[in-house]
Design goal:
By secondary structure, this protein is mostly helical. It contains 20 helices and no strands. It has a single domain, classed as Sodium/glucose cotransporter (Up-down Bundle), CATH 1.20.1730. Bound molecules: 4-fluoro-L-phenylalanine and sodium ion. It is found in: Membrane.
């Protein structure tokens, strides 16, 4: 077996984890799930889910990954529980499933950068979306996006992922802040902020049953949980890193970028008079609405290029993390070189993504299935393993490098054992109910 790689620096790990977390989940999913699930009411449930369920679950993945220094499947046998490998397999499959349509949306984003530069979507944003979102052109765009991802992963942890995300993550934050400042000057800004930030309590209570599964699913998706990513990334971390602080940095930065996305998107939508609850209803309508916004304001081309450029960088750094999961598993187990593995797995992903690229109805179905079934199921089983099967050993691992955090650690262990398990079970029941019954 070849010598296992590690992160060159601690900050390299944190940035790569942030690079994974910050992605289309923040910039595309979060605004559109907010719009279709009651606006600020959704935001409240989502923030609670991130803090109470997402953060503890992330620490669970971190402790498992660093303890075993293995890919997400072999981690379970390393802990002495071979039969639980199935949970690792489920997590890898969940990631694979999500990445298949993620690449398609990544392809759309590339088309939108081009469309901003040429002004192609300015006259008729809806028609432009129709033309680029599905069909042979979308398949080509998907392949291009995936090609970049494969190339970076083929270069490896230090030269590829670490170097790329070190530049990407700071640029995303700076550019989003710049956009938010510009958007604040638009006439619809106040109305946009109100929709995004002031929750209607009646909506929250009346629709809790349908909002909660999406809010919890969003928390998992946005933090890259349940896809074996954080297990894999933390397997390259040293024993003296403080995983609790690292995890908190990821959660905080990821939340900031999500909030910035809302602060950018909703004022634009309300400035152009879009009915946010319906115009942004579908997976693609957000592209249509934002594009319409860029088409109707001064310097729209420039802002369009910057906005979709940020989205592309964020999407790439996430997709890289997910491909790495599978490549890492294969790299640990077979004597095949990283570049060959990256290309082979890339081709499989491409094929799985073709239905989503040919028809957005498929993409929506893949997406809903991921949110309502795959993600909660994968996180639930992982949490039961770390909390109940491993328990104390996971706690000790979490505290290595975080010696002053014993009380926090104990609270964490009981939170994942009780609160997270119950919350995720409830989410799963609601989600399955919504999807199939
Ligand atoms: N946390 C990522 C996001 O919010 O976009 C989720 C993700 C999806 C990561 C797909 C990686 C990926 F390939
Ligand atoms: Na995210």
């Amino acid at each position: 077996m070849p010598q296992r790689e590690t992160w060159a620096t601690r900050v390299g790990f944190i940035l790569a984890a942030i690079g994974s977390a910050v992605g289309l989940g923040n910039l595309w999913q979060f605004p559109f799930k907010t719009a279709t699930n009651g606006g600020a009411a959704f935001v409240v449930f989502y923030l609670v889910a991130v803090l109470l369920i997402g953060f503890p679950a992330m620490l669970a993945e971190f402790s498992l990954g660093r303890r075993t220094k293995r890919n997400a499947v072999d981690a379970f046998s390393r802990m002495g529980h071979r039969s639980w490998r199935i949970v690792g397999v489920l997590a890898v499959l969940t990631g694979f499933w999500i990445l298949s349509y993620y690449n398609v949306v990544g392809g759309w984003v590339m088309r939108y950068i081009l469309g901003s530069a040429t002004g192609a979507y300015f006259d008729d944003p809806a028609a432009y979306f129709g033309a680029v979102s599905s069909g042979p052109e979308a398949v080509v765009a998907q392949a291009l996006f995936l090609g970049i991802v494969v190339a970076i992963v083929a270069l490896g942890i230090e030269d590829g992922i670490e170097r790329a995300t070190k530049v990407m993550v700071p640029s995303i934050v700076v550019l989003m802040i710049a956009l938010a400042v510009w958007v604040a000057t638009l006439p619809g800004a106040a109305e946009g902020y109100a929709f995004f930030l002031s929750p209607n309590v009646d909506t929250m209570i009346a629709n809790a049953g349908s909002i909660i599964p999406f809010a919890v699913g969003q928390a998992f998706f946005t933090l890259s949980l349940g896809m074996a990513i954080m297990i894999t990334y933390s397997s390259y971390v040293g024993r003296d890193d403080n995983l609790i602080v690292d995890g908190a940095s990821v959660v905080v930065t990821n939340t900031i970028v999500g909030v910035l996305a809302g602060l950018v998107v909703f004022p634009i939508l309300l400035t152009i008079g879009a009915d946010v609850t319906t115009d942004t209803g579908g997976a693609g309508a957000l592209f249509v609405a934002t594009a319409a916004g860029f088409g109707s304001v001064p310097f729209g081309r420039l802002f369009g290029i910057v906005f979709f450029g940020v989205v592309l960088i964020a999407a790439l750094s996430s997709a890289i993390s997910l491909l790495e999961v599978t490549v890492s598993y294969a790299n640990d187990n077979f004597d095949v070189s990283r570049p060959v593995l990256s290309i082979g797995i890339g081709i499989a992903l491409f094929l799985l993504g073709v239905p989503s690229a040919m028809d957005t109805a498929w993409l929506t179905w893949f997406d809903n299935f991921a949110y309502q079934v795959f993600l909660p199921l994968s996180v639930l089983l992982l949490i039961v393993f770390v909390g109940w099967v491993v328990g104390q050993e996971a706690l000790e691992e979490l505290l290595s490098g975080a010696e002053g955090y014993r009380t926090f650690g104990t609270v964490w262990l009981w939170t994942i054992r009780i609160v997270v398990v119950i919350a995720v079970l409830a989410t799963l029941a609601l989600g399955v109910n919504e999807m199939f019954l």
